[in-house]
Amino acid sequence: MKIKGSILVTGLFLLIGLCGIITSLTFHYWESMTLPLITSSLVIILACIQLGLDLRKRPKKDDSVKKGETTADDTLKKAELKRGTIILCWTAGFALATYILGFYIAIPVFSLAYLKTHSRRWLTSILFAVIITGFIYLVFNIVLKTILYRGLIFSLF
User: Fold this and answer.
1) CA 151 to chain centroid
2) Collapsing DSSP states into helix, strand and coil, what is residue 111?
3) Which of 38, 69, 115, 155 could bond to 125 as cystine, CB 3.0-4.6 Å?
């Protein structure tokens, strides 16, 4: 059986999630353990679901295609590569914005930019950005009494 690239990537995410759980269990305070433990658990659950979907897919029979012809599979692979690249760029952008600006600025900026690039109205985008930021503030600052990362720029003040 030939191992597909998607199975290898899913296995990598399983490994990352497992490392995250093991690392978070070494933290001394439950406040610092909670977020990485929940996030890593979600990564493992989603990776297991994806692994199950990947393993259930049956390989297609090879049809003889002339050299140089573009098939629907080639077009689909290019579209998936483009979509994966876009997702990776959004994720890297959010991580970079969080590192530089902190969570409380990166979350509304990211959600507003994401919704506007996906053709949502201004009112909807702004309202969602405010609500999600308020929810994050409520959960972490008020309920959990945990201060989220303030960012590289704002930690100087």
Assistant:
1) 19
2) helix
3) 115
